[in-house]
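User: I'm curious what two different proteins look like when written out as structure tokens. Can you demonstrate?

Assistant: Sure. I'll show them one after the other, since each token string lines up with its own sequence. Here's the first protein:
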Amino acid sequence: METEYGYHIIQLIEKRGDRVNARHILMRPKVSDDELVACLSQMDSIMDVVKKGDISFEDAITLTSEDKDTRANYGIMVNKADMYSSLYGTSKFELKDLPAEVAKAVAGMQVGDISKPFIMVNQQGKEVVAVAKLRNRINGHRATMKEDYQTLQNVLTEKLSEEKVDNWIREMQKKTYIHINEGWGNCEFKYPGWVKE
């Protein structure tokens, strides 16, 4: 069976009703250097047409991109680097959160610039040819409601959630019996009050 990750050879070991016990082998075909060079050349030609203004960057994406994650939203990348980051799920990235090849491509670009085609390894571990367009850049600054509303909202929501969990633990601590083995009673606990003196 072929998927976006490569070719799978699957063996069914056992089946009971809706439950199955299976194992598989995954084989990822290697893209040849000639194919990568040909793809780089083709991508370069497409970007020449975009730069001439015959087609927009966004239209070129919908017509040529094979990336299912960004094709439907005109190439906008979504930050999935750190789910605990205030930027998670947004289209904003810190340079360190970008894939290394993309970060290298956009590091010296100005807003609106389109990079030269480059080879990178995608999330599925495949070598692909990509280009990057820098839509916006926010230089280091003091946070404002106008420019950083989503980030500030995420920080506040996270802080309120932590406080709610903290209060819940402290309330449950009063009603919950635990036994602490001898020798551990003098430890420093995050929530005081576990050991009655």
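Here's a second, unrelated protein for contrast:
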Amino acid sequence: MNTLFDYLVWRGDLTLRQSPFCAVDGLILNCLSYFPFDGVVGEEAVSLAAAAKQALALPAELRPVRAPEDLKLLEALRDSPRFQGMKLFAYRNRRNLTEEKQFAALTVDTGDGTLYLAFRGTDDTLVGWKEDFNMSYLETVPAQREAAAYLMEIAGKSGKPLRLGGHSKGGNLAVYAAARARPEVRGRILEIFDNDGPGFTERFLKSAGYRDIRGRVQVFLPQSSVVGMLFSHAEDYTVVHSGQVGVMQHDPYSWEVRGADFVTLERVTAGSRFIDRTIRDWISRMSVSERERLFDALYSVLGATGAETWSELSASWFQNARAMLQKCVELDAESRRMIGRTITQLLRASTGSLRELLPGRGTKERHLP
């Protein structure tokens, strides 16, 4: 199976003049946004090759990567004629435990007269995942507001046409920022690449800003998508074949590429639709206040370990498990009852989803309120 690394071997020597910017290029830059460029890329533009050389020279503890492939990608882009001359600037990486915010973004001057704003998806931090959960009961979350402000800031510094994109939550941020931008900025946006990002509430999808940019949003989901099927999408989406299984298909490095395009399928799998319906039905059974209380309780249990990342949580699993169990015991009675009720609701929702997906059953769509 061929991936974006094979794409860089086949077409990495072609300039954007020879082969125009495509969706695979967008996925590559979205993956690049995961790399920790802290102290390497600031407000002044620096070539991708120079930034890569400096970042790769840092000790491993100063450049903690999300996945080994992120490091491999930076090395490949450093040596690729197509990418090495691109300019990186305006790198941001902000986390705030009090606000429950995780936001990072990077702007790329691609060299074809356009700028690409790449929004990072959820990283390894617990607060990043908590912010994702908050999307189930908040109309907006802090990272979305920061993404909108970031777009307006970059648009104010340059009059070039814009492309936006992101993987996972980053895709959601890219779409949100575009929809919330002023009309004159929205008019400069050429394309928005959403790689398996969660959707939005019905209210957002009916907004004037979203309707304006909807036709320029390209959504790509793997065949067993879980994250990208959450909440609602009004856009048509393209199903990309992944070499992974189940939830691991969210990994963009597993997406199959042929030439300058993805290898596509007709639809997501029945398993993906089952999970999507189950989660939608489960969440719809809870009130907004119940969702907030549930995820706050779960976050407090994880936070009792003192860990700030999933890596730290798993590194001392036995000790952390004891801390989480103790925290569960200390939860108030109502929180414990609520967790029990939501587990029961989840089981009921999964049963109902399975019945709906059986041959001959209806497939009524559900959306979050």
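A detail about the second structure: The first strand starts at residue 46 and ends at 47.
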